[in-house]
Amino acid sequence: MNILLVYPNCPETFWNFRAALSYVSRKATLPPLGLLTVAAMLPASWERRLIDLNVRSLSDADISWADMVFIGGMIVQKDSALQVARRCKDMGKTVVGGGPLFNALTDDFAEVVDHFVLGEAEITLPMFLEDLAQGAPKREYASDVRPEITTVPIPEWRLINPRDYYVMPLQYSRGCPFNCEFCDIVLLNGRIPRTKPPEQMMAEVQALYDAGWRGGVFIVDDNFIGNTRAVKRFLPELIAWQKAHRYPFTFITEASVNLSDDAELMRLMSEANFNKVFLGIETPEESSLKECGKHQNTSRDLVQAVRTIQGHGMQVMAGFIVGFDSDTESTFDIQIRFIQTVGVVTAMVGLLNALPYTRLWHRLREEKRLLAETSGDNTDGRMNFIPKMDCATLLAGYRRIVAEIYSCRSYYRRIGTFLEHYTPTARRHWNGEQTLALCRSIVRLGVLSRHRLHYWRLVGKTLCTQVRALPEAIELAIMSEHFFRLRERLIREVDGCLEQSAPKEVLPAAGR
């Protein structure tokens, strides 16, 4: 049996960083961990190939080789996934769909997907494979069971060329103990974090090392610190391994703001070479945090929380949302001031959207305010529900935030603020790739760019006051090219939405 695993193309979004990737000659940010893991779960006698459309194109020869085509992806990849599925069906292939995209939008793929393997693959994929072996595979496999992840196999790294990617993904846990109204993590992975034992996780770390990878590793957990007791058992093992291997990896992850409450945990993460963490801050306004059930962010000084984490050697990246029912016209300036004050350089500000079957989705449907399905990209200027605030006012305010925080002046000022509160602790190995990125930044940003004065001020000040943070300063300067392009695109998209901001027909209140 020949299995072709296809990862659809990701459109231009906040997270693809294509403009910045050219500085290090990489094609995509990270490979599809889900499909690489599914590949390892297939029968050993089967042949498998993986095509990541963000790295290379899909040829007719690729499809002709396959007996079955497995497609997995996120909601934002829907259009590409539909094109791939139709093409494969037209060539007479059996198409199997799984992952968050197909869990959320099963009906949209009814005509082009033969089998849906939904829920967590550790449960439903073996069911499908068993029925397939008996010659009677069902149309759909689904389960609400939350399996332990102690038997998840090591991803099949041999199916990709690691040098196509900027960072490599690993997963330590699934699930998040919190229950934010807008978030679909509880639907996908549950509220009880399930973790891999240290020995299993270290085997995955070693396998990635053996595959030749050196550099950034993104632990793609819903909330890395969801089970702090387990994390504190794992991190000493990782620290010992890093020391023994001379720190070949730097780590990035996602966590909740209460990380700032645990000095021991931050110290362990710093010693393990974590240098970036993404936080869901959403808003500094208590009323909106309470509205969406983000209680872990309330009754605390969010500015101090961010600075505490920065002081432990981790750059804070963060997500922010506008469009809550509690938001007012002053919300936009409050968001801008907060982002600039705390020095969150990578600030993803998006419009609230109702992801399928979340608590927010159900509430808005009952209130007859739900308009359509989400695009999966909350930074594209579109909302899929009727907001309490006047829609044009909300879009104009969102436009103002994006235009301000990703203006050259504000962006470089934010880098300076971040560096003032940042204590660099990560151990890095300067290599040819970083030298190339530095040289390209000097030419593109320091000579050719109209923003070159900002670049040289940043470099000069960093050299004089905090030379150990120079790699971070250069990296963030390089990222400016992506964010400035993103700014212009978002402004165009929001302007387009403002021209057609009249509400559409709402979805009926009944439903799943």
TrEMBL record:
Pfam families associated with the record: B12-binding, DUF4070, Radical_SAM
InterPro entries reported for this sequence: BchE-like (IPR051198), Cobalamin-bd (IPR006158), DUF4070 (IPR025274), Elp3/MiaA/NifB-like_rSAM (IPR006638), HpnP-like (IPR034530), Methyltransferase_Class_B (IPR034466), rSAM (IPR007197), rSAM_horseshoe (IPR023404)
Sorted UniProt keywords: Iron, Iron-sulfur, Metal-binding, S-adenosyl-L-methionine
GO molecular function, one term: cobalamin binding
SMART domains in the cross-refs: Elp3 (SM00729)
Entry cofactors: [4Fe-4S] cluster
Domain of life: Bacteria
Claim: Transmembrane is one of the keywords in the record: no
Residue intervals of the Radical SAM core domain: 160-382
Keyword S-adenosyl-L-methionine in annotation: yes
One term under GO cellular component: cytosol
The name this protein goes by in its record: B12-binding domain-containing radical SAM protein
Annotated source species: Oceanidesulfovibrio marinus
